[in-house]
Amino acid sequence: MFRYPTPTLAAEAGYAIAGDRFAILLGAGVTEGVIARLWNAAVAETAVLEDVLSVLVAGGIHDLPDFAVAEFPDDGAQPVRVAVRGAAIVETSDRTRVSGADARTWIETALAGAVGIRLALETGPAGGDLLPLGLGVTRAHELSWGRPFPAGREPDADVTPAAAGEVPPGTLAPVTVAVPTIAPAAPAPPAPAPVARDEEIDVLQTISVDRSLFARLFEDEDDLELPDFLRDDARGGDLPDERTRFGSRRGSRPAAPATSYGLRLPGGRTVPLDRPVVLGRGPRAGEHPDARIERVSSPHKEISGTHLEAVLDGATLVVRDLGSTNGTIVRPPTGAAALLRGGAASRVPVGTELDLGDGVTAVFDALEPSTAG
C-alpha cells in the first residue's frame, strides 16, 4: 500500500506516481505530458527502471527534474532498485538514506531487505495526514510504501553510493552509478617508452556515463555483414593490400569510386575517409600506423582516449568500437539509434550520425569534390 501526506498547497507540490512495480516522485514544474508518459512506462508489463529513466532524459540530460524512482522486484528476495536526483531522497525502514543532491546526473543503486521505502523532496513543505494511494497519480512532496515510517524520524546516515567508500548496511553494491566519478589511479607501471610531445598521456581515466538509456544496445554481431578483412574467421586469409585502396583484395584493385566520403566533425572540420580514421580524446599514432588520427575535445572526459575506428567500404562505413568506456550512439538516417560498445562493429549508410559523447558528433557524408581533399 502506498501513502502520501496531503500537501499544503497542491498546485505547488510535486507529483507522486504509484504503479504496480514502481514508485515515482518528481519535483514541481514537470509537464503533464511527461507525467502521462511516465505513467505509461510504469504500468507496462515488461517495464524496468531504464524505461522510466528514458522518459526522464528524453528532454535532455542537462534539463532533468528532481526525481526519485523505486522499482520493486517481482521476487521479494531481490533488492529494490532506486534512482535519485537533485533535492529528492530515498529512505528505507532499516535507516538507510540515498540522496541525489551531489549527482551531476543521478544516483542509482540497489537496496536489499527493505520492508518500507519513503521517497521525498527535501524542498517540499511538511504535509498533513497520510492518505492511502492505490494505483495512480497525485500531487505530493512525499510517497511511501510498505511499513509506515515513524513521524519525525531522521535516518542515521546520508548515503551517496557514488561518493562513499563503503556500502551501508542493508544495501547491495551499486548496480549502476550514473554520476561520473574518476577511478583511482592504478599502481605505477614500469617506465613507459618515450612518447612524442604531440601525443597526450591519458593520466585520468575516462569518466563513465550510462549511455544505454539513449539507445538500444547493439549486441548481435553475428548479423553484421562485415567486409572479409574485418571478420575474425578471416585472420589467416589475405590482408588488404597496403599499396591499393584500403579494403581491396590483393591483385584485384577496384576502380576508384566516383564519390568521395568523409566525416564531418564539430566546428566545420571534415575528415576524408581515404584511409582508416581513429577518433578519440588522445589516440596515439604509433598504435595505429596506417590510420588517420583525429583528436576530439572532451572537457568532461566522457570520450575515451582511443574511442572509435571508421573504415570506408564502398559506399558504406564500417565503425568499430575500440574498447571505449561509454561507447558510441549510432543514429542512422532511418531506424532506431543503437549503442555500439564492447568492441562491436557495425556497417552504416551515408547520413549516419556517430555520437561519441560530450556533445561530439561525427556525420558520415558524401563530400563535394572541393571538400574531398
The beta-strand count equals 24
Identify the CATH architecture of the largest domain.
Sandwich
Low-confidence stretches: 151-186, 191-204, 220-227, 234-252
What is the name of the CATH topology of the largest domain? Answer: Tumour Suppressor Smad4
Rg (CA only)? 25 Å
Tell me the overall shape: elongated
What share of the residues lie within helices? Answer: under 10%
Q: Proportion of β residues?
A: 25-35%
How far apart are the termini? Answer: 67 Å
Helix and strand pattern:
EEEHHEEEEEEEEEEEEEEEEEEEEE
Organism: Microbacterium oleivorans
Protein name: FHA domain-containing protein
Region (Disordered): 229-267
Domain FHA: 277-330
Would you write up a description of this structure?
There is one protein chain. The protein has two helices and 24 strands. α1 packs antiparallel against α2 (49-57). Helix content is 6%, strand content 29%. The protein is mainly β. The chain has helices spanning 32-43, 49-57, and strands at residues 2-5, 15-18, 22-26, 67-71, 80-85, 88-92, 97-99, 107-111, 116-121, 130-133, 136-139, 142-146, 216-217, 260-264, 270-272, 277-280, 292-295, 308-313, 316-321, 328-331, 338-340, 345-348, 353-357, 360-367. The chain folds into two domains: 2-146; 212-367, Tumour Suppressor Smad4 (Sandwich), CATH 2.60.200. Mean pLDDT is 75; it is low at 151-186, 191-204, 220-227 and 234-252. The longest helix has 12 residues, at 32-43.
